[in-house]
Amino acid sequence: MAASTSLSGGTSESDGRTHWIADVKHTADKRQRDQASPGDLKLLSRAIRELRDAFKISRLYRRIK
Questions:
Q1: Coil, strand or helix: which one is 29?
Q2: CA angle (62 as vertex; 58, 65 as ends), nearest 5
Q3: Per-residue pLDDT tens for 5-40?
């Protein structure tokens, strides 16, 4: 796999994704420790799912200017 610079400062694209995924999980764990209400957790879960769907769709148009 070709190396590329990632947002996390690493050299591998995979390493950069791993960092950001860990960050999302860490943030979710903090919400649990903060004793977030079920409604807050439901909202967070739904927002992440909506973003995932939006990214899937927008991926098709990334190269179009």
A1: helix
A2: 120
A3: 344 444 456 778 999 999 999 999 999 899 999 999
| Residue 22: both structure tokens together | 């860990």
Q: Which amino acid is at 10?
A: G
Write out the two tokens for 45. Answer: 């879960």
* 16 exposure class (CB count in 10 Å sphere: 0-12, 13-18, 19+): middle
Q: Which residue has the higher pLDDT, 29 or 65?
A: 29
Q: Which whole number is the average pLDDT over 31-55?
A: 94
Token pair 């960092």: residue: 19
Structure tokens at 54: 């939006």
